[in-house]
Design goal:
- InterPro entries: PDCD5-like (IPR002836), PDCD5-like_sf (IPR036883).
- This protein has a domain of about 60 residues: Orthogonal Bundle (Helicase, Ruva Protein, domain 3), CATH 1.10.8.140.
- The relative contact order is 0.07.
- α2 crosses α4 and α3 runs antiparallel to α4.
- About 75% of the residues lie in helices and about 0% in strands.
- It is flat, with a radius of gyration of 26 Å.
- The model has no long low-confidence stretch (mean pLDDT about 80).
- The chain is built from five helices and no strands.
- By secondary structure, it is mainly alpha-helical.
Length: about 130
């Protein structure tokens, strides 16, 4: 296939995808003002969350959670949720140090660790007894 033909097929496919994406969005698209308000509310909630975490966690603990979030964002979010819930319930009265965060991470890992089991099944040949 020649390059101009390939390019024409790509252009046509892109137009089809854009048309599908555009019509799909218009059916359940909200008012732009509502979308902006939702984005602002989400951003504001995230800022409040980060502010609360900065008050609860020491700088070393925040750095460790940030490093965890680079690799496993869902795990970091879960740890943050646990810490925020504990703080709201009054179980945390002082800043969480890195050592305490590590013990908390170990507890969470032991509760949520998945046991992997490998089973090897050997096939028997026709002449095996």
């Amino acid at each position: 296939m020649a390059d101009p033909e390939l390019e024409a097929i790509r252009q046509r496919r892109m137009q089809e995808l854009m048309a599908q994406h555009g019509t799909g969005k218009q059916g359940n698209q909200q008012n732009p003002d509502q979308e902006r308000a939702q984005e602002d509310a989400k951003r504001e909630a995230d800022e409040r969350r980060q502010m609360m975490l900065s008050q609860i966690l020491s700088s070393q603990a925040r750095e460790r959670i940030a490093r965890i979030a680079l690799v496993k964002p869902d795990k970091a979010r879960g740890v943050e949720d646990v810490i925020l819930r504990a703080a709201q319930m009054g179980q945390i009265v002082e800043k969480v140090s890195e050592e305490r965060l590590i013990t908390l991470l170990e507890q969470i890992n032991s509760q949520t660790s998945k046991q992997t089991k490998v089973t090897i099944q050997r096939r028997r040949g026709v002449d095996d007894d």
